[in-house]
Amino acid sequence: MTHDALIIGGGPAGATAALLLARAGWSVAVIEKAVFPRRKVCGEFISATTLPLFDEIGVGEAFSNNAGPEVRRVGLFANDTTLAAPLPSPTALSHRWGRALGREHLDLLLLEAAVRAGARVWQPWSAIELRRNETGHYVCNIASRQGGTKELIARIAIAAHGSWGRSVFSWLAPKAERYSDLIAFKAHFSDCDLPTDLMPLLVFPGGYGGMVHSDSGRVSLSCCIRTDELTRCRQLWPSQHAGNSVVQHIQNSCLGVCQSLRHATLDGVWLSAGPIRPGIRTGFSKGLFLVGNIAGEAQPLIAEGISMAMQGAQLLARRLIDQQNDMTPDAIHSLGVKYAAEWKEFFDMRVRASATFAYLAMRPKVVAMALPVIARIPGILTFGARLSGKGAMADFG
Ligand SMILES: Cc1cc2nc3c(=O)[nH]c(=O)nc-3n(C[C@H](O)[C@H](O)[C@H](O)COP(=O)(O)OP(=O)(O)OC[C@H]3O[C@@H](n4cnc5c(N)ncnc54)[C@H](O)[C@@H]3O)c2cc1C
Question: What is the rounded end-to-end Cα distance, in angstroms, of the chain?
Fold first, then answer.
């Protein structure tokens, strides 16, 4: 059987694209190598701007029933300073505030919805090779965890396999210098003393992070730390798990985190990933469409990656569906070029703003100079959140 679309990766980007295409009547195959539910390095916050998309794809109610409390304030925990300011409220939206949901729940919710819409999901299967045959169709070799292999054929292929692991496609494999020197960590804590409506940015020597109330009364703490600082943490606390040594380092330099975790206990194990690869890549390469992190990603301190992944998938699905009656190679090529340009237009600001914030957050002298100013004008935090995409919904026309 020849599918209309083959999607590699069943995370937020892949599942959203699969669902929207399947709902439009496309025959869609998704290949996902991990067994769901699974936890993932991620702060788990989802911007209010993405909640209408949740409704559109039919998971809005399930999300509302399971996500953590509404997040109405953005904060800054740095040195001895703890600041807070209102998050921009996108008043045009029916849901006004972003919330967090564990990736073990969110990713399962989205992929199950894609299956209900008609997508065929191969899981846990890995895409190991993709090539084009003489008719121009994509042929993907997939391998199951149990050892079986199979060939899937489709008219178009979409890469949605994220950016932190090894790339399936040699031509998309990044050069070493494209990686940042940031390693990401994430854990859940219970019994945290963090206000439920507050999502603080954590600034500490050699890195940054975030905390937010997620589902089931848990708080997610996620962060990125430079490799040299991580090495120092490991030397200071050699008997500790790397994640514990990092959180110890954060608590030593960040009063707000220390106070929030005073009575907290680690819920589950630390996860790590990286080095991460922030930056804009491309939405279209050699006939292949790219969505989510593999197309481009912001520095995680703005907590927009899931939103960008899902909104980018929505953009691609709309453009593909609009053009479904003309799928000649030339038409696909022009659509790909147009989609890649639109992707850049919609997400460029978020990626650039996040790069600037991350650069500043990791310069202790800049932080020391900026803190008194932000303390006097906390609206700077609201403005920063607006610049990073939390103020307005994407309008794809
Ligand atoms: C520290 C940190 C904190 C963050 N916090 C937030 C936050 O609070 N809010 C937010 O919105 N974003 C956050 N992000 C970013 C967010 O996690 C990502 O942007 C998001 O997961 C991207 O979604 P995706 O679908 O593109 O990729 P992924 O979520 O990585 O999904 C890709 C999927 O592809 C599968 N896959 C990979 N290779 C193959 C293969 N060969 N064959 C089959 N399947 C394959 C993987 O198993 C995976 O399930 C954070 C990131 C970090 C590092």
Answer: 34
